[in-house]
Amino acid sequence: MDNYWIWWILAAVLIGAEMLTGTFYLLAVGIAFTLGGVVAWVGASLPMQLLTAGVLSVIGTVISSSLVAYGFAKINFRGRGVLFAIMLSTMMIPFCFITSVPSKLLRPRSASRRA
Fold first, then answer.
1. pTM of the complete model
2. Cα separation of 8 and 37, whole Å?
3. Long-range pairs for 67-72 at CB < 8 Å and ≥24 separation?
């Protein structure tokens, strides 16, 4: 399997994870991984692929975070405090915890636990 397929599969997984979690930085990282795949497809070396994906991930995350920060800092709107609390909670609570708790609550107990 060529390197660019690995980059594009990882980008698809990250973009899918972004759709499930709603965290915008995964979209920036997914786009950066897509461009890392393009660099691999062109024929660049592995360090150049990693450098491209890393730099673009950082740039995309910083740009998206600063746009959100500007909106919360300078624009007054109704519900700003609630939205800010929701945004902070999505950053502080790990995704694995969010998915594991409901799955344990919804999973039926086995016969050995009931006794």
1. 0.63
2. 6
3. 68/24
**Please, are residues 87 and 68 in contact by the beta-carbon 8 Å criterion?**
yes
Quote the tokens at residue 56.
């673009």
Contact 13, 59 (CB under 8 A): no
* Domain with 13 in it: 3-114
Task: Pick 4 or 113 by higher pLDDT.
Answer: 4
The total number of structural domains that make up the chain: 1
d(CA 69, CA 73) in angstroms, rounded, equals: 6
SS (H, E, C) the chain: CCHHHHHHHHHHHHHHHHHHHCCHHHHHHHHHHHHHHHHHHHCCCHHHHHHHHHHHHHHHHHHHHHHHHHHHHHCCCCCHHHHHHHHHHHHHCCHHHHHHHHHHHHCCCCHHHHC
pLDDT reported for residue 102: 59
